[in-house]
């Protein structure tokens, strides 16, 4: 099993929070390992999570969990590869269920996110998400 790149020094930002209620729906719930909580975004055409790591990281796998019925049909991972601007690295297509979804290494062949910042984008639905 892959080890999480998220640590105590990782800074996270999100595009929005449902009803601006950070206590109940905020980004802290992305990584709390509690099945009863998750980050809830507000409405909008695209929702995202930015992770700023204390050092450069190499992404080899993505584990994501949506609340059933609220999965995006398409997502992408962006990162900076030795530059300041974030650019698309890979697209992914999550299933619309509440199971933990793991993008297997085959998806990541040739993918390098040698970056301190990565952005996970999901399109056209509010997100109810655990990373």
Automatic annotation (TrEMBL):
Annotated InterPro entries: Galactose-bd-like_sf (IPR008979)
Keyword tags: Receptor
Protein name as it appears in the record: Nuclear receptor 2C2 associated protein
Species classification: Eukaryota, Metazoa, Chordata, Craniata, Vertebrata
């Amino acid at each position: 099993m892959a080890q999480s790149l998220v640590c105590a020094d990782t800074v996270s930002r999100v595009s929005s929070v449902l009803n601006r209620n950070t206590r109940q729906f905020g980004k802290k719930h992305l990584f709390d390992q509690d099945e009863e909580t998750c980050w809830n975004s507000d409405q909008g055409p695209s929702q995202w999570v930015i992770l700023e790591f204390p050092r450069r990281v190499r992404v080899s796998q993505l584990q994501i969990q949506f609340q059933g019925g609220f999965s995006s049909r398409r997502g992408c991972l962006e990162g900076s590869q030795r530059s300041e601007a974030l650019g698309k690295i890979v697209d992914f297509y999550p299933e619309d269920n509440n199971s933990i979804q793991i993008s297997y290494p085959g998806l990541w062949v040739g993918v390098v996110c040698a970056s301190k910042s990565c952005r996970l984008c999901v399109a056209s639905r509010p997100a109810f998400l655990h990373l």
